[in-house]
Design goal:
By secondary structure, this protein is α+β, with helices and mostly antiparallel strands. It has three helices and 13 strands, in the order ββαββαβββββββββα. The chain folds into two domains: about 15-190; about 190-224. Strands 1, 2, 3, 4, 5, 6, 7, 9, 10, 11 and 12 form an eleven-stranded mixed sheet that branches. The chain has a two-stranded antiparallel sheet with strand order 8-13.
């Protein structure tokens, strides 16, 4: 691969990210506009590499289903994710999200990725925990182009340029201007002073449901 080269005065790309929907289950929308000529952007693969903090994760099973239907393409590092772990027992997750060309703009690329908030420890006062997403790194690979590389630096990304290549190729990191340096996800959390009430109600609900199940078994069950 030879990747995207300089154009004009090595103009920076612009990148923005946005969280769609509400609650714990969101879509992370990433948009990139390359600072190159329109003909130079043709045939290039653009990806956003972002590190998700422990408070948010990608479900690998959901991602696999979406990729089977060609709805998104991404690489998770590590590829094994504990989707049940709370925030305080989870670790960071590195995501390489492949962007699709925007038909309305020849230099623009975009992609959406389903993400999910994790449960946090109960808080003393605030009913929301803040999860901060830093601006992603923009990576470019133009395997079919013969362009200069003065503006870009090689990136350490072990991933193919696209789904059509078997092995990893050389990615380059593109300097960019983020619309916002960081994105903040607000995750609802419980209050510590409600812990006793929650425990009592949970115990009562468990006893009630267990009693109903036991009564149904005794009434309708067949015992030899």
């Amino acid at each position: 691969c030879v990747v995207l080269g300089a154009w004009a005065a090595c103009q920076d790309a612009t990148v923005s990210q946005e969280l769609l929907k509400e609650g714990f289950h969101r879509d992370l929308l990433v948009k990139v506009k390359l600072g190159v000529a329109e003909e130079d952007a043709a045939g290039c693969t653009v990806a956003a590499r972002t590190r998700l903090p422990p408070g948010i994760y990608v479900d690998p099973y959901e991602l696999a289903s979406l990729q089977q239907h060609n709805l998104t393409k991404a690489v998770l590092i590590p590829d094994v994710v504990d989707v049940e772990a709370p925030e305080y027992l989870a670790t960071d997750l590195l995501v390489l999200l492949y962007l699709e060309p925007d038909p309305r703009c020849s230099r623009c690329f975009r992609a959406a990725l389903p993400v999910h908030g994790r449960y946090h420890r109960p808080a003393a006062e605030s009913e929301e925990a803040l999860v901060v997403l830093k601006s992603p790194e923009v990576l470019v690979c133009c395997c079919d182009s013969r362009l200069r590389t003065e503006c870009w630096k090689p990136a350490e990304a072990e991933a193919p340029c696209s789904g059509k290549t078997d092995g990893p190729c050389q990615w380059y990191s593109v300097t960019h201007k983020p619309t916002y340096e960081e994105l903040i996800l607000q995750v609802p959390v419980g209050l510590r002073q409600h812990s006793s009430l929650v425990c009592v109600l949970t115990l009562l609900a468990t006893v009630l449901c267990s009693s109903l199940i036991l009564a149904a078994v005794c009434k309708y069950g067949h015992f030899s």
